[in-house]
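Internal ticket #5521
Category: modeling
Description: The requester needs a full-assembly model to guide mutagenesis choices. All entity lines are attached below as received. Residue total reported by intake: 530.
Assigned to: D.W.
Attached entities:
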Amino acid sequence: MALGESFETVLEAARSGADWAWEALYRDLAPLVHGYLRSRGAREPEDLTGEVFLGVARGLPTFTGNEGSFRSWVLTVTHHRLLDERRYHGRRPSDPVPEEVIHARTSTGNVEEDALQSLATTRIRQLLDALSGDQREVLMLRIVGGLTVNEVAGILHKSPGAIKALQRRGLAFIRDIVDEEVVPL
Amino acid sequence: MTNPGAHSDDMRDRRSLKDLRDEDIDRLLSGKAAGSDGAGDLAAFVQGVQATYVAPPAEHAARRHIAAAAAAARQAATTGADLADPPTPLISRWRRRTVLGMSVATMTLSLGAAAIAATAATGGLAAKGDLPGPIQRAVAQAASGVGISLPSGGSGSGSPGSSGSHAVPPVGTGSSKTRAPATAAPSASATPGRGSHDGSPLPGGARRSDDSSAGIPDGVTATSANHGTCVAYAEQIAGTLGLGDSERSTFVSLVARDQTAVTVPVARDAKPDAACQSSIDSARASAAAHTGNPGGVDDHSTPGSGHGKDVSPAPTATPTPTATASSPTPTPSPSDHSPHEGKGN
């Protein structure tokens, strides 16, 4: 909860369209939104992040709740935008180049660091790909989105017990894979 | 790395993290678990996921997003409208347009169908004079403005012979040139679709001239002289002229072809206008002259002898033995079924 006690003030100012308030909200939540979209394989995560915040801005007059509720609501909007994008691309299939590949080919930093980062990214991606869709969804909302079990349950329309079971199984599966391999993460 | 076989429940359940409580998992997934908690491998995984994915968009994109969001919030604040759905260029617009378009189209079609049905029902009832009195009078008055006479509702009934017939039928022969404009009286509908709609040479002639005993029915508003009224009158009196079925049909057809035959509505036993009477006399003479020539001018039993085509004062068709003047149900000509077929075509 990055905003803490100032959340109410920031939210009120954001409702009236204050740039500084939107800057604060965006800096706090955009990494989670963008990260969640990337982890779930969105084709254009940056553009989708912009659409999410547009939706948040338009729906803000009707929002009530604390900072935790706000974060959960923003991630809910994000989740729905992601589903929209998937439906859209389901009707218009394409084969885009993964974002990691583009970053790897355009990076101009330290070569060794870039290589290690690329390996780590690939490894994480492989582990996530080994999970079932539901397990991956739950773990990304919890790890990247920073949501609680109940908040994830609300977004995915499942019971908290089902969310707990999914995350437990997903983590157990990750542990199995890691334990079977000699090279640690 | 991806191993499809690894998705089996056996593998997933091999270790169900029984050594971790829910609180431990919560701490682990929030990135606060230490490696000493017995979940060092999973903590590394969580940190790796956060390091890999949790990152803001590029700065130039962030600037654009912030400005757009602030502007949208200002707009939402001023309008007070809930615009929770952003103008997504990808999907939502197309879906809304499609769904909304279908709804509007469906609604329009429904309203159109309802209007047509109501008009048809009202028109039919008005032609029959079955509408309630005031409504019938109003409809009759409105129709008279465009030259159509309908029962005004004074007697509460229409023509005895008009039941089931067209409200404003084309008179006679199926020829576009011989088609009269609107009929002046429901009695004109005693000749609905002759030779063109029901394929019977004397669908209304024999039948309606017998049924129609009162001539001009009550409630018919006599307006102006027209051709349809004369044809209707001719058909009414055809049964009293001593003509056979075929000759009666010929007689009526000849009157129908004479566009100068016009009259105001008259009772059967009254005299029509001179032009109509003259046409009736000449048509009667012509029809009578062809007595004994059943395959003649209006022989519907001869295939191809369309009603509108073959009627002429000097027919040359070959007589057909099967079609006699007493033949009550001659076979209709195929051409009779085409309302556009006739000599004018």
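Resolution: model delivered.
Comment from assignee: Residues 92-128 of chain B form the longest helix (37 residues).
Ticket closed.
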